[in-house]
Amino acid sequence: MNFESKELPGLRLAAYWDAKKAQNWGLNFHRNEGIEIGFVESGSAEFSTDRKGLKFEKLSSDTLTITKPWQEHKVGNPHLTASKMYFLILDVGIRRPNQEWKWPEWVILERKDRDELTHFMQNASKCVFKSTRKIKNLFSSLGELLPNPDGNITRISLIINSILLEILEFFRSSRVDFLECSPNENVVRCFLDQLQIIAPSLGHWRAWRRIAA
């Protein structure tokens, strides 16, 4: 089940799957044109941002994923297990780590809250976080509206805003590990990581690494 609306520009996707049993498919490594928030309401799912080492983390209703547009990620090892999983993709006008975030106008968090949320999301060194009871309830409420979004756009907008606020409250109350490099350094690192993926046989790969170190 997925939903898009011209009344909520920048909302690339609000969707969920409800797999009652193990599947014969999974989501391969991919990126999104926006910030993706993922939440497993029931069951579990295997999640990875490690294309090279293929290390996976198990997602459950106690976890939440946040990935940025330049972060490759995969769900399923290799296939999906029984699970109900939600996805929100918000386009904040970025494709690289050093670009300025521009939240959609319908995101009504006040400026200082948006700036603080941006800082946490932009600089967090990991993608999997603890969920909260409020976040679980909000996604459950969202799931009730997605099958029939007509007439519920305001409610959907308010729920997404509430999810963002609860994520911010979690960041404020938790210890968040941040990246040690600057946004510009992260751009170079992302480029080199991608170069390693698409051209592993390049003879000068190690030389590139030494130059960037």
Would you kindly provide a written description of the structure presented here, covering whatever features stand out?
With 213 residues, this protein is an alpha+beta fold. It folds into two domains: 179 residues, Jelly Rolls; 32 residues. The protein has five helices and ten strands. It has a six-stranded antiparallel beta sheet with strand order 1-2-9-4-7-10. Strands 3-8-5-6 form a four-stranded antiparallel beta sheet, with no helix packed on it. A hairpin with a 7-residue loop joins strand 1 and strand 2. The chain is globular, with a radius of gyration of 18 Å. The mean pLDDT is 88.
Overall pLDDT level:
88
Radius of gyration, CA atoms, in whole angstroms:
18 Å
What's the CATH class of the largest domain, please? Mainly Beta
N-to-C series of helices and strands: EEEEEEEEEHEHHHH
Helix content: 25-40%
In terms of DSSP E residues, the strand content is 15-25%
Globular, elongated, flat, extended or rod-shaped: what is the shape?
globular
Write out the strand line-up for the largest beta sheet, numbering strands in chain order: 1-2-9-4-7-10
What's the number of helices? 5
| Architecture per CATH nomenclature, i.e. the level-2 architecture of the largest domain | Sandwich
Number of strands: 10
Which blocks of ≥5 consecutive residues have pLDDT under 50?
none
* Ends apart, CA distance between termini: 44 Å
CATH superfamily heading of the largest domain:
Jelly Rolls
Q: Major beta sheet, specifics?
A: 6 strands, antiparallel
CATH topology (fold) name of the largest domain: Jelly Rolls
> How would you classify the helix and strand content by structural class?
alpha+beta
Number of domains: 2
